[in-house]
Specification:
Rossmann fold; 16 helices; 4-stranded parallel beta sheet; 15% strand; alpha/beta; NadA_sf; binds iron/sulfur cluster; 3 domains
Length: 331
């Protein structure tokens, strides 16, 4: 165990050699049964991980699933703040994250001690934070939201309620425009959604004039202004299923395209390109998880994500408020 803990400090995951003859999918499924474990995967995970997950979803869906699962162990194929959210909602369960270094640039862009000082400047405001943030930041918040429910949550509050919104300035600005509310924004952003190249996207649109251009609200305003549809990952997925169009240029992390192709096999999905030489925009943190790391993490019950009881108690309230409002509004 000591060797493994040292390994976690340096590498962030268990690097135990795996017998190459093993069928990892079969082994992971066996471990799920043996340990009464559930595997939750975000839409941005590698397709092979999505395909063995018990539940695939965006932040809201995964939070709801984490809250109601009967499993003893939650294996979170996603990033650190998501595993923390699962722990906050199910503190009695063991929560595993295949690679502890699967962090998030957006979450990192809002250190809790600086946000606490920021809040002090606006004593008559409540703080709404996007779920893509640390447990400590959630503990400083009044309501948590996701990209699927941010607009409705802000809309559900009394019109004279003053609001600070963090950490994502692009999502905050989008909510501000949709609701007409004067939100005070924290200046944070996601490196993946800010990297799209307008020029390359325009070039693609000229090449595929009938394609619908769809984008996640973490993208910058200029890009959103040009979009045919804006939505969370599950919103984008639903849109591609329901739309009459057969071609889509997709401006979010490219992992979602796996589910889009499965849901609409006859349709074409083109990842919106970033402003570098790559064809698509992958989140380097999400893509740290591999099938091998999922297997080792389930076999050795490490790395585990745990939180102090005080943080769990304080971070739970704003998440529960989000879940209550979402349920009340039928989201
Ligand atoms: S896509 Fe952006 S917001 Fe999502 S985990 Fe990666 S860095 Fe964070």
């Amino acid at each position: 165990m000591i060797t493994y803990l040292t390994e976690l400090d340096t590498k962030g995951y268990i690097d135990e050699p795996i017998d190459p003859t093993l069928d990892l999918v079969e082994e992971i499924n066996k471990l799920k049964k043996e340990k009464n474990a559930v595997l939750l995967a975000h839409y941005y995970q590698e397709p092979e991980i999505q395909d063995i997950a018990d539940y695939i979803g965006d932040s809201l869906g995964l939070s709801q699933q984490a809250a109601k699962t009967q499993a003893d162990v939650i294996v979170f194929a996603g990033v650190h703040f998501m595993a923390e959210t699962a722990k906050i909602l199910s503190p009695q369960k063991k929560v595993l994250l295949p690679d502890l270094k699967a962090g998030c640039s957006l979450s990192d862009s809002c250190p809790p001690h600086l946000f606490a000082k920021f809040k002090e400047q606006y004593p008559d405001h409540i703080a709404i934070t996007y779920v893509n943030c640390t447990a400590e930041l959630k503990a400083l918040s009044d309501i948590v939201c996701t990209s699927s429910n941010a607009v409705q949550i802000v809309d559900s509050l009394p019109p004279d309620q003053k609001i600070i919104f963090g950490p994502d300035k692009n999502l905050g600005d989008y909510v501000r425009r949709k609701t007409g509310r004067d939100l005070v924004l924290w200046n944070g952003a996601c490196m993946v959604h800010e990297l799209f190249s307008q020029e390359r996207i325009q070039h693609l649109r000229r090449q595929f004039p009938h394609a619908k251009f769809i984008a996640h609200p973490e993208c910058e305003k200029e890009l959103l202004d040009a979009a045919d549809y804006i939505g969370s990952t599950s919103g984008l997925l639903k849109y591609t299923q329901e739309s009459d169009s057969d071609t889509f240029i997709v401006a979010t992390e490219s992992g979602i395209i796996h589910q889009m192709e499965k849901a609409s096999p006859g349709k074409t999905f083109i990842p919106a390109p970033p402003n570098n030489a790559c064809a698509c925009n992958d989140c380097p943190y999400m893509k740290l998880n591999t099938l091998e790391k999922v297997y080792n993490c389930m076999k050795f019950d490490l790395p585990e994500v745990d939180l102090p009881a005080g943080i769990i108690a304080r971070a739970k309230r704003p998440i529960e408020r989000m879940l209550e409002i979402s349920e009340r509004l039928g989201l």
